[in-house]
Amino acid sequence: MILRLRQAHQDQIRAHVEGGYPAEACGIFLGREVDGVRIVERLRLVDNRWADPEEQTHRFLIPPEEVLAAEREAVAEGMEILGFFHSHPDHPARPSNFDREHAWPWYAYLIVSVENGRATDWRVWELREDRSAFIERTLEVVP
Q1: How far apart are CA 1 and CA 55, in angstroms?
Q2: Could you list the residue range(s) of the whole structural domain that residue 55 is in?
Q3: Residue 114 domain-assigned?
Q4: Quick check: is 128 in a domain?
Q5: Which end of the chain is more exposed for a tag (fewer CB within 10 A), N or C?
Q6: pLDDT at position 23, please?
Q7: Separation of alpha carbons 68 and 54, rounded Å
């Protein structure tokens, strides 16, 4: 699986995660899959709704109503939810155990490491079907 973003999407994500620092920032990818390439057509930027603001530096929540709204929007336009993104403030762009416990197989998970307020590392992951671990996948950024 390859996750393909346009440069404009990467710029939007960068602004969102850097603007959310030191909290985790998050969002949803809408688009289409063609021959194993997940092509992002639109982003849905989401406010981190984790209940405790002090824990937002290492936790995020996309409420179910946001996912449902994104699903409806995608279906109405012939797309689907391809995955999700979130930041790891001052931590590596690798999934945590919490991330694994709350992820679903098939979806693309982009994690952006934000060090001292700057997005520094971008990595895409996919949860194995047996939910035992994530597999790193390829990120393509195109004009």
Answers
A1: 32
A2: 2-118+136-142
A3: yes
A4: no
A5: C
A6: 97
A7: 27
